[in-house]
Amino acid sequence: SVPRASASPHGTGMHPHTLLSDSAPDSSSDAPTLESLPPELIAAIVETLKLPWLGRFACCCAAVAGAVRHAEEAWAAVWASLTGGVAPAPLGARAAVRSLLTLDQAHWRSLPGSSGEAPDWRQHGCVLTCSGGTRLILFGGRDGRRFFCDTWACDLASGAWVRVAAHSDARCPSPRCFNSDSGGGRVLRSGEEEWAVLHGGLCAPGYRDSQTWLLGPLSLPPKEWSWLPASPPDHVEGAAPVARFHHTLTLLPRREAAGDDSLALLGGHDRTISPLLDLRLFSLRHASLPRKASGVAAASVSVGWSSSTHVLGPAPSPRAFHSAAHYDHPAAGRGLLLACCGLGPAAGGEEVFAALDDTWAFDLSSGRWLELAARLPHGFARSRAALAVSRDRLLLAGGCRARAAALATYLPLTPGPAFDDVWLLDLRRGLLPSELGLRPAAVSAWERCVLPHERAHRTPHANATAGTLHGGAVVLVLGGHDTFLSPLADEAVDSFGDLADEQAWALHETEAIVVGERPERTEARLCTRGAPHSCGEGGASPSRRQLVGGARMLVQGLETQAHINGSIGTVVSRASGSADGRVDLALGPPHSKSISIRCQHLRPSRSEARGGMPTIAAPGGGGDGSALWVISPVERAAGEGRAAEAPSNPPRRVAVSCISVLPQPEHEGSA
User: Fold this and answer.
1) What pTM was computed for the model?
2) What are phi and psi for residue 37, nearest 5 degrees?
3) Coil vs helix vs strand at 586
4) Cα angle 364-365-370, degrees, rounded to a multiple of 5
5) Closest by alpha carbon to 230, among 295, 288, 297?
6) Whole-number Å distance between alpha carbons of 44 and 100
7) In this structure, are residues 287 and 293 in contact, taking their beta carbons and an 8 Å threshold?
8) In b/e form, how buried is each residue of 240-261, taking b as 16+ CB within 10 angstroms?
9) Nearest C-alpha neighbor of 335 from the set 264, 400, 413
10) Is the dihedral of CA 310, 311, 315, 316 positive or negative?
11) Tell me: the pLDDT tens digits for 493-514?
12) In terms of DSSP bridges, do strands 628-635 and 652-660 run parallel, antiparallel, or are they unpaired?
């Protein structure tokens, strides 16, 4: 027991971020209680406290504040509690925690262009990270005229591309893209090996298949990788999963170091645009995979998708455009597949394409679906939302309403107005341990997350991707579309409900979110610093068509008002009588004012050109990393090497960028 010194008026309600400041609080008390304690004892106390109490304790006196500031072991423990990992050594634990909680160092970084051969730009390819986040895999995709079937690997340290598996072109997936296929694949671990697993895809307009292919072993040099088709074993009943789109592919990480990852395929639309429910699991646990020492080229791999149709108890209704995520329940020690929202038949209703508001968990150990009591409030049912797990909280961001009933007979899959909100669900309180493993709590609810408006100018988006960094401590919401349709809706959405490229948000609309202990303590920030532009290096000024009222624009390149660079505002109107192309722009928080600015300093948040939508890489089986990787198009330099098989393509290549929230090491250059 330590006697208390006179407390600061802010001591009991202090936000944990405050203690990260370099200024020490003044101590106005002469009482010798804490000030007279030996520094070693203060340091020992500091190292036992958790983050919120660490902040309150630091407000007691200057001696304690100094001890807290320099207690690197205490900050290392804080970092471990937030991320489950070890703080980066060059940065230091305290600086890393500060950057993580404040997000003030969030930035984009672009890899240097490859001087050798590099893939031509294509969109909707399958992009995966592997080898501990050191390599990028690119397969397939399409441009304006054709589909691709080439495979490339990128060294993320140098930015160099290499064509892989070229010797197996006669035995590789057919040309295809993955515009509505949850990325098209994932990287699975089996023992000490890694394999890229590819499933489904759009082979030609209107034609989809349900083939599954393996690429690897990824532990070998890329030049030695090969494609292998996965065929169901003879003793397994049933064929491959039904060909589908608008489904989810969720990576289920292994729980033991020597185990195997799994891939969960859930829901979607079949060829008749009917919603599906069936859950299929794919694992390499019993596959006869060729190993590095074998030296034998296998013709195929005998492995199939296991069916989970014979589940016990209730199950969710068939759905598509839903959201799914993986969660390991710490108390029960069980892995769960979480699914919520979507588009499908509502319970007790007659609508086939209604927006859903329910939340389900599939217990991978018992094979049971568990319906959580939590439902979104009336009027907030949605589809096409981003979903991620962060610190035992389920985070739901964006999405859109179903189309109005009066318009449902015409293009019923067309999305309705988009949401710009964020919701949190406490999974520990929503799912409780029981004798049978887990049971839903009688009461659980989604909580609306009020984000700090002075830090983030929010964007309504549907089809966005939720990526996580540092063990789920940071959630990135990026990509996706604006559902504000043009008067000619046929040009903005197809008959399958997929939005056109013109509706896609640019990468500078990416939002980073750190979930606090309570929803009101959640931090958020738009990541505009160093963001690449989908219309080429440096970007291009917006066209007259893009400068319409309400259009969102990024400000950059100002010299006299440099503090405004990186802000996002909306177009009010073209400045009347302006001869130098000025636009009236209403800046969002924290500036919240109107300015008149030249068009050359603006970059559109939506791309007008077709075929320029960035593709986000799916993380590998190793889990969350420190960066999320994205490919986008960039103009080729004069004389730059091109893929020999596509001489007629437009002169654009694939550019690689990543987003991270920690400061970039000085030896890697500035972002």
Assistant:
1) 0.88
2) -70, 145
3) strand
4) 60
5) 288
6) 25
7) no
8) bbbbbbbbbbbbbbbeeeeebb
9) 264
10) negative
11) 777 888 877 788 999 999 999 9
12) antiparallel
Percent of the chain with pLDDT over 90: 42
DSSP string spanning 236-299? Answer: --S-SPPP-BS-EEEEE--SSTTSB-EEEEE--B-TT--BB--EEEEESTT-----TTT----S
**How far from the centroid of its chain's Cα atoms is residue 504's Cα?**
15
Collect all residues with Cβ–Cβ distance below 8 Å to 136 and sequence separation of at least 6. 127, 128, 129, 130, 153, 154, 156, 617, 629, 631, 656
Strand partners, 216: 226
Side chain identity, residue 518: R
Map residue 585 onto helix, strand or coil: strand
pLDDT score of 196 more than 90: yes
First to last CA, the chain: 49
Dist. CA 515–CA 521, nearest whole Å: 7
What are the two backbone dihedrals, phi and then psi, of residue 636, each rounded to the nearest 5 degrees?
Answer: -75, 145
113 and 122 Cβ atoms separated by less than 8 Å: no
Helical segments of 426-561, H only? 427-430, 489-492
- How many CB atoms sit inside 10 A of residue 280's CB? 21
What's the rounded Cα separation, in Å, for the pair 315 and 360?
8
Give pLDDT tens digits for 533-584.
644 445 677 888 788 888 899 998 899 899 999 899 999 977 554 556 889 9
- Bridge-based pairing state of the strands 226-231 and 301-302: parallel
Three-state SS annotation for 104-150: CCCEEEECCCCCCCCCECCECCEEEEECCCCEEEEECCECCCCECCC
**What token pair was written down for 119?**
């893939």
Buried-exposed string 60-75: b where 16+ CB fall within 10 A, e elsewhere = bbebbbebbbebeebb
Determine the Cα–Cα distance for residues 369 and 358; give it in Å rounded to an integer: 13
Tokens 């759905």 map to which residue? Answer: 319
Query: Which tokens go with 657?
Result: 């960028």
DSSP label at 37?
S
In whole angstroms, what is the distance from residue 292 CA to residue 247 CA? 34
Q: Which of 114, 112, 109, 153 is nearest to 131 (CA)?
A: 153
Contacting residues for 310 by C-beta, under 8 A, at least 6 apart: none
One-character DSSP codes across 155-214: ETTT--EEEESGGGGGGSPPS-B-TTSTTSEEEEEETTEEEEEEE--EEETTEE---EEE
What does the block give as tokens for 530? 């160093």
